[in-house]
Design goal:
Strand content: 15-25%
Shape: globular
Structural class: alpha/beta
Number of helices: 16
Distance between the termini: 11 Å
Helix content: 25-40%
Radius of gyration: 25 Å
CATH superfamily of the largest domain: Aminohydrolase, N-terminal nucleophile (Ntn) domain
Bound molecules: 6-O-phosphono-alpha-D-glucopyranose
CATH architecture of the largest domain: 4-Layer Sandwich
CATH class of the largest domain: Alpha Beta
Number of strands: 27
Strand order of the largest sheet: 3-2-4-1-10-9-11-15
């Protein structure tokens, strides 16, 4: 959610900023902007919509010589996506970019307005630059003014500020939103994640909450509440595995096709013929643990829900799952025999991160399942298992979800194995199925073509119900979320057996029901549920290995002997269906409206 870049040095700044923002664009694309100060010369550009609009606007501009620069790509929180609300925000002689939310901005704004300050935007961010200038006008010391400014801010932020009052310095602060500093000799970079600076910087420092400071003449001056502090840089990988579309129409499409391959990566070194190994977990990790609590948001929450069935069924460990934003404020009862698992594709989701911090304060052991190494959630957890899905650019998550589910399945087996609650023959059967997973995820041209044709029949109607039972219920939730995210149709996931308790009232010919009907799990039960809907004239798209005569549309799947293989195969069908409906509607598949890839605000 939102992206920040910054650079101080003698290189061409516009390109550094725009290239960096390009890497972050999937995090927010309501607007983008840059500000550069070179000696006496101050330049600022903003454009609404995609970054290409900003590129276009800055075509004639080139920076020269030493200077300081900041850039931002926005996912709107306060105020509409207009140019005035785009960052960087300007005071009288300073610019600021910010990720996060300043919770007390209204109060600060009123104070400033009473002093005669005029606000140009509706954002919370603009208060930062005015508070700074107010202090600096009083004390004429930009660093002290910045320090006093951040003392005043409540909430989550990562912010960069440049000012004509110190044209050789970038001021920075981090609290709750990610930010890092990259180094290459005298050149210093800032970014809200490492992708914009890979290939540019060779060393990096990930700022901790409460840290702030400034950069001048290639040196970083770092502070926290205790005063000045030293820090250790770490090496930054030089491999730019920057995702390209490789001939696919959309990143999401490419990522669906990649699932088969990345699943092999996820399993590599971890799945053996009769055992599961996680080098990341020391052998005593599950000692004293008798329950599992999982917190996550969005798609990650759905993988968590599916895993709760597996932890209880396979490992015989009690497992409950909560949406992180709900967990945070419910005053949960936490006991130390509970392992606290967070699941996050980005590792930066604010609600999930805060839930993790709460669990840690309560003394719980923590484990994160994440796709991004060195992310805030990974660094905050006692242990982490990386999903190895590779960079996921499509905002609607596909391969990250698939690999999360796989890690959780492996973990359920691992816990059963370590706690000796899982019989060795069951473990062997599960592993044998697991090894077939990459095959179950291969997208066949024929299937994709069938879904492309079929999608034209689903461009209207008053809603979609995705229904399933057991682990296919969370898959139904995820199928509905995918469709919702990129088609903007109303879609709901429901436990199939629950339809008769209310939602069936909606059934008519323009209620589209996507029925997940696996052969290896409760087939007869779900069949009856679907028959009930068909009897009320609902339009049924059945996905099953078993032909179903009441289906209006039918996708025949191949796997019928293991629920997880059926799960993964059906997952692909729901992803492709959402993709093709979205394409027909002419929507932006990779950057759907109103969404962002990682949500670093509450
Ligand atoms: C956002 C994204 C979703 C994602 C959710 C959780 O809402 O748009 O696709 O599932 O955040 O993100 P995480 O990175 O924690 O998995």
């Amino acid at each position: 959610m939102c992206g920040i870049v910054g650079y101080i040095g003698a290189k061409e700044k516009k390109e550094i900023l725009l290239d960096g923002l390009q890497e972050l664009e999937y995090r927010g694309y309501d607007s983008a902007g840059i500000a550069i100060i070179e000696g006496e010369k101050l330049s600022n550009f903003k454009a609404i919509g995609k970054l290409e609009n900003l590129r276009h606007k800055t075509e004639a501009y080139h920076s020269e010589g030493f200077g300081i620069s900041i850039g931002h790509t926005r996912w709107a929180t306060h105020g509409k996506p207009t140019e005035l609300n785009a960052h960087p925000h300007l005071g009288a002689y300073s610019y600021v970019v910010h990720n996060g939310i300043i919770e007390n901005y209204q109060e600060l704004k009123e104070e400033l307005q009473a002093d005669g300050v005029t606000f140009l935007s509706q954002t919370d961010t603009e208060t930062i630059v005015h508070v700074f200038e107010k202090f600096n006008n009083q004390i004429n010391n930009p660093f002290e003014a910045f320090e006093k400014t951040i003392e005043k801010l409540h909430g989550a932020y990562a912010t960069l500020l440049i000012t004509e009052a110190a044209p050789d310095t970038i001021f920075f602060a981090k609290n709750g939103s990610p930010m890092l500093i990259g180094f290459d000799g005298e050149d210093v970079y800032f970014a809200s994640s490492d992708t914009p600076i890979i290939g540019k910087a060779n060393e990096v420092y990930y700022l901790e909450d409460g840290e702030y400071g400034f950069v001048k003449e290639g040196k970083v001056f770092l502070f926290n509440a205790e005063g000045k502090k030293s820090f250790t840089k770490q090496a930054l990988t030089a491999d730019k595995v920057s995702a390209q579309k490789d001939g696919y129409r959309f990143f999401m499409e490419k990522e669906i096709y990649e699932q088969s391959y990345v699943m092999t990566e996820t399993m590599m070194g971890r799945v053996h013929d009769d055992s599961i190994l996680f080098d990341e977990l020391d052998e005593n990790f599950f000692d004293g643990i008798s329950a599992i609590k999982i917190c996550a948001c969005g798609t990650s929450y759905h993988s968590a829900l599916a895993s709760a069935y597996l932890f209880e069924r396979l490992a015989k460990v009690r497992c409950d799952v909560e949406i992180a934003s709900e967990f945070r404020y419910k005053e949960p009862l936490l006991t130390k025999d509970t392992l606290f698992i967070t699941i996050s594709q980005s590792g930066e989701t604010a609600d999930t991160l805060e839930a993790l911090k709460m669990a840690k304060r309560a003394g719980l052991r923590s484990l994160s399942i994440c796709n991004v190494d060195n992310s805030s959630i990974v660094r905050e957890s006692d242990a982490a298992i990386l999903t190895r899905a590779g960079i996921e650019k499509g905002v609607a998550s596909t391969k990250a979800f698939a690999t999360q589910t796989m890690v959780l399945w492996m973990l359920a087996l691992y816990v059963g194995q370590e706690k000796k609650t899982l019989a060795s023959d069951i473990l062997k059967t599960e592993v044998a199925a697991m090894l077939k997973t990459p095959k179950s995820l291969v997208v066949e041209e024929k299937l994709h073509a069938q879904l492309t044709r079929m999608s034209k029949r689903y461009l209207h109607g008053h809603g979609f119900f995705f229904i399933g039972r057991d682990i296919f219920f969370p898959l139904a939730l995820e199928g509905a979320l995918k469709l919702k995210e990129i088609s903007y149709f109303h879609a709901e996931g429901y436990p199939a057996g629950e339809m008769k308790h209310g939602p069936i009232a909606l059934a008519d010919s323009t209620l589209f029901t996507i029925a997940l009907m696996p052969k290896s799990m409760h087939y007869d039960k779900i069949k009856s549920n679907v028959e009930e809907l068909s009897a009320r004239d609902a339009t049924i798209l059945a996905i099953s290995p078993e032909p179903f005569e009441l289906a209006d549309d039918f996708i025949q799947t191949k796997y019928d002997s293991h629920p997880m293989l059926e799960y993964f195969e059906m997952m692909v069908v729901t992803q492709l269906l959402a993709l093709e409906i979205s394409v027909r509607l002419g929507n932006d598949v990779d950057m759907p409206r109103n969404l962002a890839k990682s949500v670093t605000v509450e």
